[in-house]
Write a structure and sequence with these properties.
- With about 290 residues, the chain is α/β, with parallel strands linked by helices.
- The chain has one domain: TIM Barrel (Alpha-Beta Barrel), CATH 3.20.20.100.
- About 45% of the residues lie in helices and about 15% in strands.
- The chain has 13 helices and nine strands.
- The protein has helices at about 5-10, 15-25, 40-55, 75-90, 110, 120-125, 140-150, 170-180, 195, 210-225, 230-240, 255-265, 270-275; strands at about 30-35, 60-65, 95-100, 130-140, 155-160, 180-185, 205, 205-210, 245-250.
- A hairpin with a 2-residue loop joins strand 7 (about 205) and strand 8.
- Helix 4 crosses helix 6.
- It is globular and about 55 Å long.
């Protein structure tokens, strides 16, 4: 909704984003995920405009956003504070339901966990009531595990790493489950290819996919067609049916996408389909790290 054409290949106009947020608030969906950095802050601004228009979030709605490093790469405790202030202003909120430390792979673990650093500041934000719950959201699984083992985060968000194609997040899911940490699974379409299919995309996780991955996804499409289940529906339910996952984040950029998402989530998908798709997951050598 912040319009990131370099990742997704198309622009999202402001009014289309506003309509999408309105549709989300009216849809029965009760969770929206954004970040300080998405679209250079534009995602938060657009969501915040609709929050202001509605006089606040719908009752029971959970909005999550994330602390991000600045353009110079600063991810200090002071930067986390500035990120919070920017997000509160853009979103027209006084506090967050859920607030993440975002992409910690771009700072050393030692720096982030130093006195007065990003992690200590995140804990302080929770203690101060600015964030009711705190989490960590990022890419490399080993780094997310290191942060979970600090014992301060209640939620972990992984993206592109637990899908029909990639299972690299399996160890994270096991560890989080054992610790009682909620897992949020994002980017279940791998940036779009598992939603649009190989005829429309050759990229997985915002980069060119290997020929082997493309072939596997094409075979998945054929199997899904035999069950009269679109690949995008199967990709969504792969995450929804996993008991270790508390919520699934799917990118939407139009009211039509919101309505389709709700319909897909309510579609019954036979378990036999996933048994046929399972052998087509990419081998570990093709997984993200």
């Amino acid at each position: 909704m912040g319009s990131v054409p370099e990742n997704f290949g198309y622009e999202v106009a402001p009014e289309r984003a506003y309509e999408t947020v309105r549709a989300t608030f009216d849809s029965g969906i009760n969770f929206l995920d954004t970040s300080n950095s998405y679209g250079g802050g534009e995602s938060e601004r657009r969501i915040g405009a609709v929050i202001a228009e509605r006089g606040g979030l719908p009752a029971g709605f959970v909005l999550a956003t994330k602390a991000d490093r600045d353009r110079n790469g600063d991810f200090s405790g002071a930067r986390v504070r500035r990120s919070v202030e920017e997000s509160l202003e853009r979103l027209n909120l006084e506090s967050f339901s859920l607030y993440y430390l975002h992409d910690p792979e771009y700072v050393s673990f030692e720096e982030a966990t130093s006195p007065g650093g990003a992690v200590e500041t995140m804990v302080a934000l929770r203690d101060e009531g600015i964030a009711r719950h705190i989490g960590v959201a990022g890419g490399p699984i080993t780094i997310l595990v290191d942060y979970l083992q600090l014992g301060v985060f209640e939620v972990v968000l992984t993206h592109n790493r637990f899908t029909l194609v990639d299972r690299s997040a399996e160890p994270l899911l096991d560890i989080a489950s054992a610790m009682g940490v909620a897992v949020i699974n994002a980017a279940v379409y791998g940036g779009g290819i598992l939603a649009r299919g190989v005829s429309s995309s050759n990229r997985y996780a915002y980069r060119a996919a290997s020929a082997g991955v493309i072939q596997r996804i094409a075979m998945m499409e054929e199997i899904c067609a035999c069950y009269s289940v679109p690949l995008r529906t199967a990709a969504l339910h792969f995450s929804l049916r996993e008991p270790r996952i508390c919520s699934t984040v799917v990118g939407v950029s139009s009211p039509e996408h919101v309505r389709e998402l709700v319909e897909m989530a309510n579609t019954k998908v036979p378990g036999e389909l996933f048994r046929e798709l399972e052998p087509l997951a990419a081998p570990p050598g093709e997984w993200l790290r």
